[in-house]
Amino acid sequence: MIGIPEGADVELDLRLEAVMEGVLVTGSVRGRAIGECVRCLGEVVEDVDVTLAELYVYPERQAAATEAGDEDEDVRELQGDLIDLETALRDAVVPALPFQPLCREDCPGLCSECGAPLADDPDHSHETLDPRWAALGGLASQDDETKES
Ligand SMILES: [Zn+2]
Ligand SMILES: [Zn+2]
C-alpha cells in the first residue's frame, strides 16, 4: 500500500559505536514514502522519520551464542567489516508507515455509483430516475433508431 520507492533518497544520521558484542548503530532515518489512499486510490505522500537502534554482533559471538543454545533469531550479524543496513532500515520504517494510508484524514472516498473521487466534487449525487421518465427515455431512444434507418 505504501513504501519508500526504490532508489529514493533516504537520509541517515547514524552513529556507530564499538561495543563488546559488536557494533551498535543508533540514529535517525528520514525519507518519503509514497502510497495509495485506501479510499480514493489517490497518491499519499508520507514523511517518515524514525529512530534506529540496532546491534550488529560479531559472527564469532553469534556462533558462540548458537552453540550455547542461546540463539536469538533477530540478531543481526556484521558481514566482515560491513553492516547490512537494509533489513534494519526496513524493520524500522515499515512499522512507522500507516497500515491503511489515507490521502487525508477525512477522505470521502469514491462515489459508489460512478467511482468519481468525492473530494473533487463533494455534492455530487446521482438522480434516481423516476421509472415513468425512464420509460420515456426508452421511447426517445427508439425514435432515434427509427430516424437513423
Ligand atoms: Zn483519498
Ligand atoms: Zn458518482
Helix-strand layout with pairing:
Elements: E1 2-3, E2 11-18, E3 22-36, E4 43-57, H1 59-67, E5 76-77, H2 86-93, H3 131-148
Parallel strand pairs: 4-5
Antiparallel strand pairs: 1-3, 2-3, 3-4
This protein binds zinc ion (2 copies).
One zinc ion is lined by residues 111, 113-114, 116, 124, 126.
Question: Radius of gyration from the CA trace?
Answer: 28 Å
**Which structural class best describes the helix and strand composition?**
alpha+beta
Mean pLDDT: 85
Shape: elongated
The termini sit apart by 52 Å
Count, helices? 3
What is the N-to-C succession of helices and strands? EEEEHEHH
Largest sheet: 5 strands, mixed
Which ligands, by name, code or SMILES, are bound? zinc ion
Number of domains: 2
Helix content: 10-25%
Summary keywords:
149 residues, 28% strand, elongated, binds zinc ion, five-stranded mixed sheet, 2 domains, alpha+beta, 3 helices
Task: Give a brief rundown of this model.
The chain is of the alpha+beta class. It has helices spanning 59-67, 86-93, 131-148, and strands at 2-3, 11-18, 22-36, 43-57, 76-77.
Molecular structure report:
Helix content is 23%, strand content 28%. With 149 residues, it is an alpha+beta fold. The chain has 2 domains: 2-96, no CATH class; 110-149, no CATH class. The radius of gyration is 28 Å and the shape is elongated. The mean pLDDT is 85.
